[in-house]
């Protein structure tokens, strides 16, 4: 039998139910793996006792013939999710020590489905970043290394970098991520795993620390499409505590998986052929077309004319929303307070926020505050919201001639930690392929396609119509089967 | 029609004051606007607070439908445009009573647009002194929490019980020109809100308060620069703010200064306003649509249901009282000014009509007069409200019936009323126990009159000699002899017969 | 449009982030880069285009007017840096 830590969600679930191992054995194996991987800095807090408790319950449930969907499966939870009784910080100093008296809807659903929690995963602070270098609790180090002999620590992507690194390192079988402009998909691509960003509103945002409310979506990250389908089924669903959640039935996605794409049309958006894109990524994209054609689909070229404006629109809308969403961190009701001698209330706010937020968070709050300020609102925010309408229309038009879009996930493979941290714009460009579908609220999947010349993973993205997670995952499955991506980072930690 | 010419005398001539009011009215609801916490007044600190109201990380607002419905009903009652598509915005500023760091409000697309109400400046002449005050808009928003400054030497305490309670902000046009008009406007608005049931109008508990916008100008000139005095919580204070602020501005301008557009605070102890510099940089509120909430889309049916649920409103009621019940304009105005008064009157009216087996229009006048002069007089003297009246509407109707059927004379009725007011007893019981029944027993009355005429033979002579005025003397003597219980009509008749 | 140090400081004050002049100086080029980047949007002709208000079609569901929450002061105050007598404590505010 394979090592337990090399098993995915479906394999653990089925093996546990089939009596091949107990849930407790699974929990112990992953707890050990987590404890042995401190060098990666994937976790802000580990909760081995929670994983064990859930495992013991799962073992009892199995004995009683009463297992739930995820009984026996331990998971990591991104630190953006508030977890009852467990510190939840969004990787920020300002929330250090904050222990929520409540559970986010999504993590609550996973736990209610029998899953155990291994710990809270590191991430970019307040989910702002594409490299996991903005966490107050230190960088997450990707388990991957370049094969050129250099030993430079690489970025696991961001913001769900703790999640992607932990899954790639096999210290968790799967975990939750969140995606605002690419925060599930880009780290998945950087670490050779699968990530699904569902349709905006599929998963409740209740209890997830808000970054940009009109964009934030929770989603699963795992090492296979099937595992993502299993998790998403448990995470999704209407929540009356989130006015923007969708009152739609949750399909049985796992059962609906099929890589037969006969009759489906795949659009290749011509505007995604950006300058300076590495040859290898272009080649993988072409390869992806072939794989989908092989699965029975027809390839068509489509146009999304406003693609170029997606990132600029995103970098107005997301910071604007964030500037208000982060106003509640003021040192009054929770988290850190900084009270200089003799400071009044407003000075306390300013001192608390100066000490509690990292540089990238401050940058975005500043941008957001500026674009909403008197005299600039229409030129920036309103214009960006109008451009967003045009981007939505671009996709609507594309759906006239295709069912899914195939694109690269990110414009490069993982870069070295520190390589881009002095250049915010270069960092933002990482999300060039993921942001447009975020702005349009559409479901998308990132699937590993192969390795580049330096031995680093590259990913492909499939974008689908609203609510068509099934189609997106089916196309992802077709890619996964043909890519046969079995590479994994060699253990050095 | 120009009904008031309120002028402020300055060194350079007369000035006119221009007033606009932003009335914040707490919407009557069980739960808060965006959370399931209670709105009840007077709870222990931070007990009516949900995680949403405390703006815990990841908490999200979900709209309370009743608050939206009440805002729509209010709009309809103010003859206002109902916007079938509206939306919430975030108004960003930092303050300890505002946990989210923004207030969820409506700037760009309020739920209610333009409307108007009619106010009367004189109850005695409600039609003749009517003035229309424009409503610019009504929007729905969250209330803030409360800061306590006097409980600790170096700290302020924060109580979030009010945080998230639903408010309507009712914004008037700058249509008022005197403190009296401002007062009449707020009274009328409060009356309508109470009729509608969308706000209890209780200014002492803070469920209604006003931001008072005041500017001055020479009559006929353009509007001057206005100041906004925040959170004024009584009609008297609102009028005081207008007076003192207008005076201050006139003096300032005449001394060569200019009025600064600013937020001011009213100090009721000193009776003056002062600048609120602490809110100085709060002017850049960075409003933008709240992405946590979907737009409010009202169906035609929703609006129609809201309209159908409205009660008869004060103006309609007043007209009906005049036209169908035959009440005087004054009585109709007094009885309809407050929903509670009208409810009481209508209960009295219904009971009276039933007890006397007459149509309401036949008993309305007597009922309205009794209510306004007798009961209100009594309540006033005792310093209690109509809600606390010791006499119920049914008891009042019984008393009126006893007068109508001749059991009680006017003076006797007053006596019985006094006792009712003291004891809360039924009038019939009082009449029975105290023997206050009016008598029409001609035998007894005739006997009494015979004795009086005998003892006053001289006066009888004088009367017969042409001194008609003495008739009153005989009536008085007879009533006295009968201890006030004789039916005055019978006394009258017998005396006439006897005296020829 | 580019921002000067004074504007950076004004925005920082509006956002309640304490910032020294040196920090503002350091932040300024980043902000100007980002603003320069987003200003590309000015090229897009958006006449007659409505700003997006709801990204995925959805409809407003309203809550019943029922008290379902509250009465959890301990939870509300549990994480407060300063809480006394059932209140949050902040530096004294003089109005």
Describe the 3D structure.
Chain A has helices spanning 9-17, 23-35, 48-63, 105-112, 161-168, 185-191, 225-235, 253-256, 279-294, 310-325, 345-356, 359-372, 377-398, 424-428, 435-439, 469-483, and strands at 43-46, 74-78, 116-121, 174-179, 194-197, 217-222, 265-269, 298-302, 404-408, 444-451, 457-464. Chain A is an alpha/beta fold and 493 residues long. Chain A has a domain at 4-260 and 479-483: Amidase signature (AS) domain (Amidase signature (AS) enzymes, Alpha-Beta Complex), CATH 3.90.1300. In chain A, helix 4 links the parallel strand 2 and strand 3 (116-121). Chain B is of the alpha+beta class and 500 residues long. Helix content of chain B is 40%, strand content 18%. In chain B, strands 1, 2, 6, 7, 10, 11, 12, 13 and 14 form a nine-stranded mixed sheet that branches. The longest helix of chain B has 23 residues, at 360-382. Chain C is mainly alpha-helical. Chain C has a domain at 5-42: Histone, subunit A (Orthogonal Bundle). In chain C, strands 1-2 form a two-stranded antiparallel sheet. The radius of gyration of chain C is 23 Å and the shape is flat. The two termini of chain C are 37 Å apart. At the A-C interface, helix 10, helix 11, helix 12, helix 13 and helix 14 of A face helix 1, helix 2 and strand 2 of C.
Q: Topology, pairings included?
A:
The complex is a heterotrimer of chains A (493), B (500) and C (95).
Chain A: H1 9-17, H2 23-35, E1 43-46, H3 48-63, E2 74-78, H4 105-112, E3 116-121, H5 161-168, E4 174-179, H6 185-191, E5 194-197, E6 217-222, H7 225-235, H8 253-256, E7 265-269, H9 279-294, E8 298-302, H10 310-325, H11 345-356, H12 359-372, H13 377-398, E9 404-408, H14 424-428, H15 435-439, E10 444-451, E11 457-464, H16 469-483
Parallel strand pairs in A: 2-3, 7-8, 7-9
Antiparallel strand pairs in A: 1-3, 4-6, 5-6, 5-10, 9-11, 10-11
Helix pairs in contact in A: 2-3, 5-6, 10-12, 10-13
Chain B: E1 8-10, E2 13-26, H1 65-77, E3 85-86, E4 89-92, E5 102-105, E6 115-120, E7 130-142, E8 146-148, E9 155-159, E10 166-172, H2 179-196, E11 208-217, E12 227-232, H3 235-254, E13 263-267, E14 272-275, E15 288-289, E16 296-297, H4 300-308, H5 314-323, H6 329-336, H7 339-356, H8 360-382, H9 393-404, H10 410-423, H11 427-434, H12 442-455, H13 457-464, H14 470-481, H15 488-499
Parallel strand pairs in B: 12-13
Antiparallel strand pairs in B: 1-2, 2-10, 2-11, 3-16, 4-5, 4-15, 6-7, 7-10, 8-9, 11-12, 13-14
Chain C: H1 5-14, H2 21-38, H3 73-77, E1 83-84, E2 87-91
Helix pairs in contact in C: 1-2
């Amino acid at each position: 039998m394979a090592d337990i830590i090399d098993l995915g969600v479906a394999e653990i679930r089925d093996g546990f139910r089939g009596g091949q191992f107990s849930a407790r054995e699974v929990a112990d194996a992953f707890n050990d793996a987590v404890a042995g991987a401190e060098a990666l800095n994937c976790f802000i807090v580990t909760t081995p006792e929670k994983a064990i408790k859930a495992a013991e319950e799962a073992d009892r449930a199995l004995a009683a013939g009463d297992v739930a969907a995820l009984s026996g499966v331990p998971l990591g939870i991104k630190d953006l999710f508030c977890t009852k009784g467990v510190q939840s910080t969004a990787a920020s100093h300002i929330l250090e020590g904050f222990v929520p008296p409540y559970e986010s809807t999504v993590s609550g659903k996973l736990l209610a489905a029998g899953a155990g929690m291994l710990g809270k995963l590191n991430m970019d602070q307040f989910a702002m970043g594409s490299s996991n270098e903005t966490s107050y609790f230190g960088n997450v180090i990707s388990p991957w290394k370049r094969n050129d002999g250099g030993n430079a620590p690489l970025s696991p992507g961001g913001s769900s970098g703790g999640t992607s690194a932990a899954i790639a390192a096999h210290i968790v079988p799967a975990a939750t991520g969140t995606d605002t402009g690419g925060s599930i998909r880009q780290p998945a691509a950087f670490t050779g795993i699968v990530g699904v960003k569902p349709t905006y509103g599929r998963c409740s945002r209740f209890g997830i620390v808000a970054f940009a409310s009109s964009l934030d979506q929770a989603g699963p990250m795992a090492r296979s499409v099937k595992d993502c389908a299993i998790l998403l089924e448990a995470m999704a669903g209407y929540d009356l505590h989130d006015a923007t959640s969708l009152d739609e039935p949750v399909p049985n996605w796992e059962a609906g998986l099929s890589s037969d794409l006969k009759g489906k049309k795949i659009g290749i958006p011509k505007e995604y052929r950006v300058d300076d894109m590495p040859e290898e990524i272009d080649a993988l994209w072409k390869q992806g077309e072939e794989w989908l054609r092989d699965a029975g689909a027809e390839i068509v070229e489509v146009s999304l004319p406003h693609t170029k404006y997606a990132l600029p629109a995103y970098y107005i809308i997301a910071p604007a929303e964030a500037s208000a969403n982060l106003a509640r961190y003021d040192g009054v009701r929770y988290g850190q307070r900084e009270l200089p001698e003799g400071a009044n209330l407003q000075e306390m706010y300013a001192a608390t926020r100066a000490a509690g937020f990292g540089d990238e968070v401050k940058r975005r709050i500043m941008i957001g505050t500026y674009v909403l300020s008197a005299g600039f609102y229409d030129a920036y925010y309103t214009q960006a919201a109008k451009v967003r309408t045009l981007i939505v229309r671009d996709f609507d038009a594309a759906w006239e001639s295709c069912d899914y879009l195939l694109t690269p996930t990110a414009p490069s493979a993982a870069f070295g930690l520190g390589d881009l941290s002095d250049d915010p714009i270069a960092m933002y460009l990482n999300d060039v392929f993921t942001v447009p579908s975020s702005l349009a609220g559409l479901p998308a999947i990132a699937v590993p396609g192969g390795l580049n010349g330096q031995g680093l993973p590259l990913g492909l993205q499939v974008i689908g119509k609203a609510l068509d997670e099934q189609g997106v995952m089916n196309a992802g499955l077709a890619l996964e089967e043909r890519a046969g991506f079995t590479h994994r980072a060699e253990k050095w930690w | 029609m120009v009904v008031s010419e309120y002028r402020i005398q300055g060194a350079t001539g007369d000035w006119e004051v221009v007033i606009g009011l932003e009335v914040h009215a707490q919407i009557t609801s069980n739960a808060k606007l965006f959370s399931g916490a209670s709105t009840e007044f007077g709870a222990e600190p931070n007990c009516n607070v949900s995680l949403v109201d405390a703006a815990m990380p990841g908490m999200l607002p979900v709209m309370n439908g009743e608050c939206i419905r009440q805002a729509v009903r209010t709009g309809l009652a103010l003859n206002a445009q109902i916007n079938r598509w509206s939306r919430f915005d975030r108004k960003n500023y930092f303050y300890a009573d505002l946990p989210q760091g923004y207030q969820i409000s409506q700037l760009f697309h309020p739920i209610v647009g333009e409307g108007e109400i009619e106010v009367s400046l004189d109850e005695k002449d409600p039609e003749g002194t009517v003035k229309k005050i424009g409503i610019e808009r009504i929007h729905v928003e969250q209330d803030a929490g409360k800061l306590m400054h006097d409980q600790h030497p170096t700290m302020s305490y924060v109580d979030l019980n009010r945080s998230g309670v639903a408010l309507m902000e009712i914004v008037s046009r700058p249509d008022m020109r005197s403190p009296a008009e401002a007062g009449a406007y707020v009274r009328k608005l409060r009356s309508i809100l109470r009729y509608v049931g969308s706000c209890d109008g209780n200014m002492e508990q803070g469920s209604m308060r006003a931001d008072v916008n005041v500017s001055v100008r020479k009559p006929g000139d353009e509007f001057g620069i206005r100041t906004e005095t925040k959170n004024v919580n009584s009609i008297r204070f609102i009028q005081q703010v207008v007076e003192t602020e207008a005076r201050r501005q006139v003096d300032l301008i005449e001394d060569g200064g200019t009025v600064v557009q600013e937020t001011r605070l009213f100090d009721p102890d000193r009776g003056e306003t002062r600048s609120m510099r602490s809110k100085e940089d709060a002017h850049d509120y960075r409003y933008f649509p709240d992405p946590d909430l979907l737009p409010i889309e009202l169906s035609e049916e929703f609006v129609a249901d809201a309209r159908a649920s409205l009660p008869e409103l004060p103006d309609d009621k007043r007209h009906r009282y005049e036209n169908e019940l035959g009440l005087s304009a004054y009585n109709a105005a007094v009885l309809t000014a407050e929903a509670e008064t009208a409810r009481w009157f209508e209960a009295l009216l219904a009971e009276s009509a039933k007890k006397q087996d007459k149509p309401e229009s036949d008993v309305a006048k007597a009922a309205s007069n009794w209510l306004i002069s007798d009961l209100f007089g009594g309540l006033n003297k005792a310093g209690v409200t109509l809600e606390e009246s010791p006499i119920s509407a049914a008891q009042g109707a019984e008393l009126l019936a006893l007068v109508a059927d001749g059991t009680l004379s006017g003076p006797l009725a007053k006596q019985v009323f006094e006792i009712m007011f003291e004891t809360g007893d039924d009038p019939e019981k009082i009449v029975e126990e105290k023997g206050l029944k009016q008598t029409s027993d001609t035998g007894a009355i005739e006997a009494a009159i015979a004795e009086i005429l005998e003892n006053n033979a001289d006066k009888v002579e004088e009367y017969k000699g042409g001194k008609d005025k003495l008739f009153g003397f005989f009536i008085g003597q007879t009533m006295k002899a009968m201890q006030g219980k004789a039916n005055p009509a019978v006394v009258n008749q017998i005396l006439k017969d006897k005296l020829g | 449009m580019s921002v000067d140090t004074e504007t950076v400081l004004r925005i920082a004050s509006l956002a309640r982030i304490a910032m020294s002049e040196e920090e503002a100086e350091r932040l300024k080029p980043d902000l100007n880069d980002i603003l320069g980047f987003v200003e590309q949007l000015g090229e897009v002709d958006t006449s007659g285009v409505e700003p997006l208000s709801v990204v995925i079609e959805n409809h407003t569901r309203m809550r019943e007017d029922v008290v379902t929450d509250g009465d959890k002061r301990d939870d509300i105050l549990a994480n407060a840096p300063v809480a006394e007598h059932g209140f949050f404590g902040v530096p004294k505010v003089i109005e």
